[in-house]
Design goal:
Strand order of the largest sheet: 1-2-3-4-5-6-7
Oligomer: single chain
Number of strands: 7
Bound molecules: FE2/S2 (inorganic) cluster
Order of helices and strands: HHHEHHHHEHEHEHHHHHHEHEHE
Mean pLDDT: 70
Structural class: mainly alpha
Shape: globular
Radius of gyration: 24 Å
Length: 480
């Protein structure tokens, strides 16, 4: 009988076969030939990315599980142990990397994860980024703010983003400010990201769009209909039906991929900007201008009182040194008028740029998108604004203030938000919470968490702070 080579399989059949494969096997297939590489980079094969799990041999690639499921404790602990080992090793610049790998499985696991993440960013996402719907980097020790920024710029249609307990800062979300692309986001988990400040919430709110510009009818319609993905090329186009990769190997245009599966956005590194240098995002943390000098708040302000509270945070030994608003501006709705508050945020941001002198601040654009002549934010299609966020966790993001909550309240609020975790957010107040809750009509009070010491909305039914027993996230009652 006639022998038939797999290379004559039509591409649509090849794609069907590939649907049964996991990420590891797909990557192997992609190395067979250029056509298999092309088919293996079909967007629909890469909807859900779990690089942290994949780097440890768990190749699950289905949709995310139940939103409120706690991750396995042993799994979390082993990732945290690996992260600590890697951090200690990484701080010693003279260490021989290959020796460390042989000696420590923990370090080699994080190194593997880092290589995997780099490979995904450089080789996979430029082709499939617009098709990616969910991404979990929870408990990753390898991911940096820069990497997240690149990923978000390549994946504009994410619905689920989990950055739990990573070391990312506000700069990770600059690509949202740049491209206005988090319109489809439904779930955002920033638990334990204690470098996040109000700036991230401002960017998030801008990226989610503005419902207030829609008519009531249109607004109701938007809330009923699911958000449509941003219309970038969704998948690598397959060659014409019925043609095999054997045909195509010899008929492809020289030098061209011929599939049109280019990236929606290419992240172009700019060597003249400190922004594109790894760890530049740490600038403000490691000796950046303290906004504390910008002005002194009322000495009776509750922020000052809060300063005496003790809480644990595993990252910064002196959170006050870098506090987002700190003593300069508490951000509390009851302490600051809106004009003063917003003025101070802009000024603090400008001040950072000016004081830095020859060192240029990393961000591509400031907060106020609409008023920025250089980087207009009107790239977000306002008619497609949806504000579809259903789950938001800022547990342990202790630098968040009422200003950040106000940003979320504006532009139509969060009409679909069901779950809101603000445990460990020490500087928010009952008034700030009230302002936000008022524009979250879908909020499930049992899934609403905030500091036990705040007299906020639904105090009798809300679930209180979750961080007291946690041990590694900010909580004003840690140590009790
Ligand atoms: Fe106050 Fe946890 S932040 S009880």
């Amino acid at each position: 009988s006639e022998r038939v080579s797999v290379s004559v399989l039509p591409q649509e059949l090849l794609l069907r076969v590939f649907r049964f494969l996991g990420p590891e096997d797909l990557c192997r297939c992609g190395q067979v030939c250029s056509v298999w590489d092309q088919v293996s980079k079909t967007g629909s094969l890469w909807r859900h990315l779990y690089p942290v799990r994949w780097a440890r041999g768990d190749y699950y690639s289905g949709p995310p599980g139940e939103s409120d499921q706690d991750p396995d404790e042993d799994w979390v602990k082993s990732l945290q142990d690996e992260g600590r080992a890697y951090q200690e090793w990484d701080e010693d610049a003279d260490v021989d990397e290959s020796e460390a790998c042989e000696e420590s499985p923990a370090i080699s696991a994080v190194q593997r994860e880092k290589r995997l993440l780099n490979g995904i960013v450089q080789n996979l996402l430029p082709a499939v980024g617009p098709s990616v719907r969910s991404l979990s980097l929870a408990y990753s020790s390898a991911v940096s703010s820069k990497m997240v920024r690149q990923i978000l710029s390549l994946c504009p249609n994410l619905t689920h983003l989990d950055l739990t307990q990573t070391d990312v800062s506000d700069s990770a979300f600059d690509s949202w400010a740049e491209f206005g692309a988090c319109r489809t986001l439904e779930r955002l988990d920033l638990s334990g990201c204690d470098r996040i400040t109000d700036r991230t919430l401002k960017i998030l709110s801008l990226g989610l769009g503005d419902l207030t510009t829609s008519s009531p009818d249109r607004r109701a319609k938007l809330l009923r209909a699911p958000p449509s993905p941003i219309n970038f090329q969704d998948e690598c186009s397959l060659p014409p039906m019925g043609r095999s990769c054997h045909d195509l190997i010899f008929k492809r245009r020289p030098g061209g991929r011929g599939s049109g599966c280019g990236p929606a956005h290419v992240w172009a590194l700019n060597p003249s900007k400190l922004a594109d240098i790894e760890d530049a995002a740490d600038w403000s943390k490691r000796g950046g201008v303290s906004v504390q000098e910008k002005g002194r708040g009322d000495s009776s302000c509750c922020c000052r009182r809060s300063r005496r509270r003790s809480f644990r945070t595993g990252v910064s030994s002196s959170p006050w040194q870098y506090g987002s608003m700190g003593e300069a501006l508490c951000g509390h709705s009851t302490c600051c008028t809106s004009d003063v508050a917003l003025w101070t945020v802009r000024e603090a941001h400008g001040d950072l740029q000016a004081t830095r002198g020859s060192v240029e601040f990393r961000t591509k654009c400031s907060f106020e998108g609409e008023s920025c002549p250089e980087h207009p934010h009107n790239r977000t299609d306002q008619s497609g604004a949806y504000r579809a966020l259903r789950f938001l966790s800022l547990s342990g993001c202790y630098q968040i203030t009422d200003l950040g909550l106000r940003c979320l309240s504006q532009r139509g609020g969060l009409p679909l938000l069901v779950h809101l975790n603000l445990s460990g957010c020490l500087f928010i107040t009952g008034a700030g919470l009230q302002e936000l809750v008022t524009v979250c009509p879908s909020l499930n009070i049992e899934h609403f968490y905030y500091c036990d010491n705040i007299n906020g909305p639904h105090a009798d039914k809300a679930s209180g702070c979750q961080n007291l027993q946690c041990g590694f996230r900010a909580c004003c009652r840690s140590g009790e």
